[in-house]
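Weekly structure sync, notes
Attendees: PL (lead), two postdocs, one rotation student
Agenda item 3: pending single-chain targets
PL asked that the sequence for the first pending target be pasted directly into the notes so everyone works from the same version. It is reproduced below exactly as submitted, 352 residues in total.
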Amino acid sequence: MLIENRRGSIVESRHQVHVAVVDAEGRLVARAGDPDFVTFWRSAAKPFQALPLVEDGAADRFALTREELALCCASHSSEQRQVALVRDFLAKIGCGERDLLCGPHPPLSDTVAKDYQTRGVRLTAVYSNCSGKHAGMLALARHHGWPIEFYARADHPVQRRCLAEVSRWTGVPAERIGIAVDGCGVTCFALPLRSMALAYARLANAEFGMRNAELKGEVESSARAHTDIPHSAFPIPHSDDSAFRIVEAMLRHPDLIAGEGRPCTEMMRAHPGRVITKVGAEGVYSALLTHEGYGVTIKVEDGHSTAAALAIAAVLEQLGLRPQPASLVARPIRNSRGDTVGEMRVNGGLSQ
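Predicted structure, written out during the meeting:
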């Protein structure tokens, strides 16, 4: 699978795409390129960084709403409502913007960014697309009585807890997961695409029948008591109410997962209840097809973000989610006068 930039009738450049599609048993259902390509999961890991909030009891203790759980999984657009919800979240857990260790940046939505620039809005940490994730990490620290200072450091219990959860769902031992610092300052994880896709596929079990969780107690008690023990040692429950709450929050609030005009929100709105899509940085997307029980992760090798959005939409379409938003089927290439002089389009597809 390639994303081609065509200028006139000539292919000017190509973006190589690697894809892994797996089921909850880890079977490779479809692929493109190298499904074992190792890269950083970046923000596509956020649902698994949010899971400890529910599993460890912090979500219940602070009465977190579905909207607040969705924001913990989000790469939001810094829309006014999203920012207000994060501020309310922080107040609920006894924290403030000064406690956030994510730095500010221009909104990911061009429309929002232009509006704020025109109005002279001063961007602070709460406007970061990761502010919901960071609020969740602060809540986890508050719940356990861990210090909230320096919660972003890799050796902080919050980050060790998130690493254990990523290990548990991906099946990759914690010591084999590559660790570095994400754009927002917390830990990010490098592992094969196939393992990332497996974690999302396992979330499908949270969509069907998990309210009768038989193993929930075992997993939650282990999570609380053994923060430093890699959770890959524990079985993945076939029915997990904790995961259900994360999945439900994301499915019910696609507007919070990204924002107006953003690919994740648009793809989820196009097929309500059928798919979760989650962008990462540098050309990464992960997805869950809830009915099929498939997990998907893609990586555009050169990190091109527009190519990645076209690629994940094409993969979902080939897996049966049709139609995809027209803006994600092809992307016009325009010159400085606004004339259309070419397009970006997918060439090739999945193999079994």
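Discussion points:
- Residues 208-239 have pLDDT under 50 and may be disordered.
- Residues 2-347 form a domain with the Beta-lactamase fold (CATH 3.40.710).
Action: rotation student to compare against the earlier draft before next sync.
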